[in-house]
Amino acid sequence: MVMSESAAEVFLRTLGRLNVRYIFGNAGTDAAPLVEAYARSGVRNTGPLPKPMLAAHETTAVSMAHGYAMVSGELPAVFVHVNVGTANAICSIMNAARENVPILLTAGRSPIYEDSRTGSRDAYIHWGQEMFDQASMLREVVKWDYELRGPDQTELVVERAVSIAMSEPRGPVYLTLPREVLAESTKDSANGDIGSPRRRLSMALPPEANAEGVVAAAQLLARAEKPLIIVGNSGRHPETVCELVAFAEGFQIPVVAHSARYLSFPSSHELHLGFDPVGVIEEADVILVLECDVPWIPKLSRLREGCRVIHAGPDPLFSNIPIRGFQADLVIGGDVSSLLRHMGALIRRQRDGQRVPRNWAAATREKRIESRAVLLNEAASMHPIHPAWVSHCVEDIKGDAIVVNEYPLGLDHCEFTHPGTYFGSSSSAGLGWGMGAALGAKLAEPDRLVIATLGDGSYIFANPVAAHYAASQHDLPVLFIVFNNSRWGAVHRATLKVYPDGAASAASENAFVNLDGLPDFEQVCAAAGGYGERVERAEDLPAALQRALKAVRDEKRQALLNVICQR
Question: Could you tell me if 483 and 533 lie in one domain?
Answer without folding.
Answer: yes
